[in-house]
Amino acid sequence: MSLSPAETAKPSASGDRIWKDSAIAIALFALTILTRLPFHTQFPEGDEGHFAMAVREFDVSRNQPQMPGMFIIFIWMARFFNLFIDDPTLSLVAVNIVASGVTVAALFLLGNAWYNRRVGWSVSLLALTSPLFWYYGETAFSHALEFCWVVLIYLAAYYTGLGDRRALFSLAILMGLAGGIRPSTPFFLLPLALVAVFFGWRRSRKTDSQNSFTFFQVILAFGVGWLAVALWFVPLIASAGGWQSYWELVQNWLPVHTTRQDADSLGEVFDNVMVLMKAYFRVVGLAIIPMFWMLVRDRTAIGYLIRRDWKIQSSFAALIPGLLYFSLVHLRRKPQTFTIMPAVLIMGGLTMVWWGDRLSKYHRQAWAIVTAAIVGLNGLFFLFGPPGMPTAGELRRFNLDVGERIEFVRDRFPPETTVVLTRDYYYRLMDLYFQNYQLPDLSHDLDEDAIVLPPHIRTLVLFDDRIFSEPGQAENFQTMNMPSDRPIRYLNWLPEWQVKLSENGAILMRRQ
Question: Would you call the peptide bond into 495 cis, given omega within 30 degrees of 0 as the criterion?
Fold first, then answer.
């Protein structure tokens, strides 16, 4: 007889030994670390460069990191690893690799605590091989750490809802610190925290447990949470030169940020929804099959769980604020959805167990087969999928491309007389790897107003293929093939010549 989702959601027997669950969690942590080490990025891409520069010197006025600058805990963690690695990019990656391990282990404990060990296995292994989560756990962005922090908040919220006083204060601290990792996290998860505190306080009033909490302790926990906010917010403000300076930076940043990114038409809302759906599919992968199957075949059981299971209700409390915001207001990149994706992963793992139970009449080990098939195929997609997707191939392509260009330019062009120019997206590479070359800030500062390069400069190197790619923008440039046979464009000139440069191209002209 197949089981319904409501039956699937029965918790583990109380006789399950804690040490065994802990051993499984530790093994999953170690397995996650091992799967991440071979594929990580070696160089920053886009905004990752701002984080890498912030590891060296935190200064929001110089976009280190990018505004609003509320990534300071991520930077502090990276600085710890940088003491041993001495590479700001790899230090940021190290934070994300460790965070990925903690995430997978915590999801096993959460699934096991919420439902049973099979759900714990399915959810954790789904996260282990989630293509999008795996990919960003290999980069220097803050998204993997945010994903980890959200899962820890879920775990603390669950035990807070059971009336555990220690979990209440843990939840307050985690919520307070969350804004120092990514500013949107505490706002989207506030409904979850409030629901958990309410259920826990109501349960505590009905029990005499030593671990229960009172209303006064709830107020005290809120105070502890605000102290946790102060731990990162005060240093952030101080680094900007005080509140007035920071507020001016925010006011200058907000109009550009909202005008460029916010949805103000149905077409843009539709675009946001499509990005959201792509992120959803790339997080759960083939687990979308049992999720869709359950939605079609067992809507009654879904309704039962939503009405009766407060864990599912709390998942929706964590899901809906971010879902509405990403759909109707602002969604730029798929990993920005990581605030809500842990809830989606939990539902994916739950439906994998449900689907396995439905198929158990055909095979006793149907759940294990379903889990292994989905997890295995998701992992194979990451390992062997094409570049341009969240895959190991894309990470390899980027590392080989950027690494070869950096080494080639350094070996062949003297820094004393050379300017290296790239498009704005990669300008932090100049700060990190070409800081001893001439005018390293030029890639960022270049605009439509032309400048003349100083007389001592004799060479202009175009680092990437997309800078000055239009006809007429790079006349008189020569090419030199790298070992991969890809070209690097450069321009040499004699002392009697000079180069006028703007975002519209380079013009070689005789010196007056």
Answer: no
Query: Which residue bears the tokens 């404990």?
Result: 109
pLDDT digits (tens, 9 = 90+) for 434-462: 999 999 888 888 888 888 899 899 999 99
Q: Which of 404, 265, 261 is nearest to 336 (CA)?
A: 261
How far is the C-alpha of 242 from the C-alpha of 234, rounded, in Å? 9
Q: Is 511 helix (H, G, I), strand (E, B) or coil?
A: coil
Question: What H or E segment, with its residue span, contains residue 96?
Answer: helix 88-114
Q: Which strand ranges, in their side-by-side order, compose the sheet holding 478-481?
A: 418-421, 459-462, 487-492, 478-481
Task: Give the phi and the psi of residue 231 in degrees, each rounded to 5.
Answer: -60, -35
What are 452's strand-pairing partners? Answer: 500
User: What count of Cα atoms within 13 Å lies in the side-chain half-sphere of residue 498?
Assistant: 12
Degrees to nearest 5, angle at CA 433 with 427 and 436:
100
Q: What pLDDT was estimated at residue 479?
A: 92
Give the pLDDT confidence of 232-287 residue by residue, as tens digits: 999 999 988 888 888 888 888 777 666 555 666 787 788 888 888 888 899 999 89
Pair type for strands 505-510 and 497-502: antiparallel
**Class of residue 300 by CB neighbours under 10 A (exposed 0-12, middle 13-18, buried 19+):** exposed
Residue 431 has pLDDT above 70, yes or no: yes
Which of the 8 DSSP states describes residue 60?
G
pLDDT of the residue at 295: 76
Q: Are 152 and 171 in contact (CB under 8 A)?
A: no
The residues facing 502 across adjacent strands are: 505
CA geometry: angle at 235 spanning 426 and 138, to 5°? 40
- Measured between alpha carbons, how far is 316 from 340 in angstroms, rounded to an integer? 9
Q: How far is the C-alpha of 268 from the C-alpha of 259, rounded, in Å? A: 12
Residues 467 and 411 sit within 8 Å (Cβ to Cβ): no
* Between 105 and 250, residue with greater pLDDT: 105
Mean of the per-residue pLDDT values of the chain: 87
Amino acid, res. 187: F
Computed from CA positions of residues 189, 191, 193, 199, in that sequence, does the dihedral angle turn out positive or negative?
Answer: negative
Q: Which residue type occupies 25?
A: A
Provide the CB-side half-sphere exposure for 42 (13 A, CA): 13
Beta pairing partners, 420: 461
pLDDT in tens, 295-322: 777 767 677 667 777 777 778 888 888 8
pLDDT for res 120: 93
How far apart, in whole angstroms, are the C-alpha atoms of residue 140 and residue 78?
10
